[in-house]
Structure formats: structure tokens, C-alpha cells
Specification:
Radius of gyration: 24 Å
Number of helices: 13
Strand order of the largest sheet: 3-2-1-4-5-6-7-8
Oligomer: single chain
Order of helices and strands: HEHEHEEHEHEEHEHHHHEHEHEHEE
CATH topology of the largest domain: Rossmann fold
Helix content: 25-40%
Largest sheet: 8 strands, mixed
Low-confidence stretches: none
């Protein structure tokens, strides 16, 4: 298969062109013929103009690439090697929502031929590729998985906004349904991942390897969040504590914060869901999720407590929230815990100016029912640095004072302004 792809006798199709799919498709298209498929026509039109809707990929990276962008599933009939990179969210009840994965599998299944390969990159629980996705491929193709077509799994490791840890310099986990497929799949990814790949012994191991990456990080952050609640009652700063503890060579410098996004705040639920199916109720992973999910409410409560005690008129209190995306310097608002915090503040009937230089106002309105404010105003009783976007990390205390009321609180959730604020009431996690 790899030889046919590299000789351009066969084509690769990347199904789903978001943060994960588009960079991968462009890298592959430097050497192979690629079909970039997405169901969103507007996004396809932007990519046809060499524009990344996610604003992660520069226009010059489209140049000279052998790729066709389309939302027409019939074009997928030309492909022989399919890579599925659609999102795997959870629903309102924190239950895995496999709908995007199932629909993508149906789309691929309808065009699947004997000898084709299907590789999944979407983060999910161990067993999903073989137990949930492969039957759909079989149903719509009329073919037998692992016999008529090969399947594999290679989890994405894209870090949005990170220009240092990229696809080409981050080791890729790869797996296949047998040794032949493993070697062919590995060869495809080795052609674009310069630091090499890790061959997992089977698909379930590859799925599990990915999901515990995020579960581990989630748990470590939940520990720091719980510690920040304790240290706040003691009257010491968590970032100061981490700095002190970090002088030990084997201490891992995790910090507290709002844990959102489409990976860390979601993936652990896939693991606890699978565990529950197998008759085990997760305790450690579930408790970490509980702590992190409660942090927006905790932060909002701290702000409201300050307003009640110090605002000139709590009934007309005004709060500025800086940042709406799930992390700094990206446009991605998926599973943003900042939105949860804003909703909590609004429950107390305070006025909230919600600003972000990167987030799309229409998307925020559609996703969360919240309106972004176009400009920063004045007269704030609390200012919340929620996301460390570049413009927000360069503010002076004089500027903050100019937009704040007397005795206003500056809630620095990222610890950026620690030891830099002396006149405002300073608080951080």
C-alpha cells in the first residue's frame, strides 16, 4: 500500500479537516495524492483559497501540495487509504458521543473497496475502532474487516497553538489489525513524522496509550486545583508553592486552572464510560474530573464574594472576563470552561463584559448563548484574566487601575501577574 501511495498510483483521503486533519493532509500531500474531505462547505471553500478556518496553518503551507479539498463524498471513491480525524465529544451528561465517528465510518464504508485501509485518529476508548467503527464499515461496504480491508489506529497528538511540538517532530503511535497492516501504516506515517513512530502491539493498546495521556494530565491538574482551594484558605499562593516545590529534581510542575478543550476535559470520560461498561466504577479518574468541572463555579464564587464585600453597589456590579477560548492564542472555543464561569457569574445578576481577540463572536453565541463584548470598557468591580492571550499578558497595573473601580479585584487565573500587582486586590488560583 505505501509504495502505491508514494508512487501516486493510489490516493490518501483525510476525512475531517479540523486542527488535526488539515495539517496531516497537507504534510501527506507533499509526497502523495491527497483528498481532503469535510462536510462543512464553508470550511472547504476557505481551504480552497489556502485559508485555514482554525487559523493554525499559514497560507504558504498550502503551496505546491497535491491535494483536492471537497465536501462531495463521491470523490472519496478515488481513495484507497482513509484517515478519519473527526472529533469525539461527550454529551450534556458526560457520555461519549460517537455520532461524528459513526457518520464518518458510514461515509467511508459506502466507498470502501477490497484492499483498502482505514485508519482512525480520533481519541476514544480502547476497543472502539474494532467494536464500534469496523462493524459500520462492514455494514455499508459489504466487506469483511481485517480480511477484505485493513484497519488501524494512530492517535492524533496535535497541540493547538503550539508551534514547537508539531506533527513532524512528535513521535506517532501507530497500530494495525495484523503485522502487514502495521508495517504499511507505519511507513505512511514515517514519511511525514521525521522523529519516527512507535509501533503498538495492537489497536487497543494504541487507543489506551492516547487516552491515558490526557487522563494523566487531567488528574495532575485536578490535584493542583484541589490544592489551590486548600492553600487559598491557608492564605498562601499556589504558584509560589509550586515554584518552591519545583526546586526538587523529580517534582512535576503542574499548575491549577480551568480545564477545557476537546481533549483533556473530554477524554477521561471515554475511559470511565468504558470502565463502567466492564463493571468497574472509576474512582480516581472520576474524582479528578469532578474537581476540574467544579472550578468555574469556585472561581465565580470567589469573585462574587469580593463584590459583595467591596463593590460600591453590588446590585450594579460589573465584571470583565479576558479570554473565551479553551487556551491561549488559539481560536478554538470547544468545551471552554471560561464560558461556564461566565454563566455562573450571570446567575448572580452581575453585568459581564466578555472579550477575546481570537474567538469568533458568532461561534460563542451559537455554542454557549453568550455575547462577546467588542471593546473593553471601564468601571469594573472585578477583572478576570481567564486566558493568557498575548495582549492580556502585557497589561500594566496602571492600565488595569484605569478601567477598574476602587477596591476592584484582579483575578489572575494563570498566575501571570504574580508579584506585579500592588494596588488592586490580587487573587489567583
Amino acid at each position: 500500500m505505501f509504495k502505491s501511495l508514494i508512487n501516486k498510483e493510489k490516493k490518501v483521503a483525510v476525512v475531517g479537516l479540523g486542527y488535526v486533519g488539515l495539517p496531516l493532509a497537507l504534510e501527506l500531500a507533499a509526497q502523495m495524492q491527497v483528498i481532503g474531505f469535510d462536510i462543512n462547505r464553508k470550511r472547504i471553500e476557505m481551504m480552497q483559497r489556502n485559508e485555514d478556518p482554525s487559523k493554525e496553518v499559514e497560507a504558504d503551507r498550502f503551496a505546491g501540495k497535491d491535494i483536492v479539498f471537497t465536501d462531495d463524498s463521491n470523490v472519496l471513491k478515488e481513495a484507497s487509504f482513509f484517515i478519519v480525524t473527526v472529533p469525539t465529544p461527550v454529551d450534556d451528561h458526560k457520555v461519549p458521543d460517537l455520532t461524528p465517528l459513526e457518520k464518518a465510518s458510514e461515509t467511508v464504508g459506502k466507498v470502501l473497496k477490497k484492499g483498502d485501509y482505514v485508519i482512525y485518529e480520533s481519541t476514544t476508548y480502547p476497543g472502539c475502532t474494532e467494536e464500534d467503527c469496523m462493524p459500520i464499515l462492514e455494514q455499508f461496504s459489504g466487506l469483511k474487516g481485517k480480511v477484505d480491508f485493513k484497519i488501524g489506529y494512530s492517535p492524533e497528538r496535535i497541540n493547538p497553538g503550539d508551534k514547537h511540538h508539531t506533527l513532524s517532530n512528535t513521535i506517532k503511535i501507530v497500530s494495525g489489525c495484523d503485522d502487514e497492516s502495521l508495517q504499511e501504516i507505519a511507513a505512511v506515517y514515517e514519511s511525514v513524522v521525521k522523529v519516527g513512530v512507535h509501533r503498538a502491539p495492537n489497536i487497543k493498546v494504541a487507543e489506551a496509550g492516547k487516552i491515558i495521556e490526557n487522563a494523566q494530565r487531567d488528574l495532575n491538574i485536578s490535584l493542583m486545583n484541589e490544592l489551590s482551594i486548600i492553600f487559598d484558605r491557608i492564605g498562601i499562593n499556589t504558584f509560589d508553592v509550586v515554584e518552591a516545590a519545583g526546586t526538587k529534581w523529580n517534582f512535576h510542575k503542574y499548575t491549577p486552572g480551568l480545564v477545557g478543550g476537546h481533549c483533556i476535559g473530554v477524554d477521561p470520560y471515554y475511559l470511565t464510560y468504558k470502565a463502567q461498561q466492564l463493571g468497574y466504577n472509576s474512582k480516581v479518574i472520576a474524582s479528578g474530573r469532578f474537581v476540574n468541572d467544579e472550578m468555574p463555579r469556585y472561581v465565580a464564587k470567589k469573585i462574587i464574594q469580593h463584590i459583595i464585600k467591596h463593590a460600591p453597589n453590588p446590585a450594579t456590579a460589573k465584571v470583565l472576563v479576558l479570554g473565551a477560548t479553551f487556551k491561549e492564542n488559539v481560536t478554538d472555543i470547544r468545551n471552554s470552561k471560561v464560558a461556564d464561569m461566565v454563566r455562573e457569574l450571570l446567575e448572580y445578576n452581575v453585568a459581564v463584559d466578555f472579550v477575546d481577540p481570537h474567538a469568533d463572536a458568532a461561534e460563542v453565541k451559537h455554542e454557549y448563548g453568550l455575547a462577546l463584548t467588542s471593546e473593553i470598557g471601564t468601571g469594573y468591580d472585578a477583572i478576570v484574566l481567564a486566558v493568557a492571550h498575548h495582549p492580556y499578558t502585557a497589561f500594566t497595573e496602571e492600565y488595569l487601575l484605569s478601567i477598574a473601580n476602587e477596591k476592584a479585584m484582579f483575578a489572575d487565573l494563570k498566575g501571570i501577574y504574580r508579584n506585579k500587582i500592588s494596588k488592586l486586590k490580587y487573587w489567583s488560583l
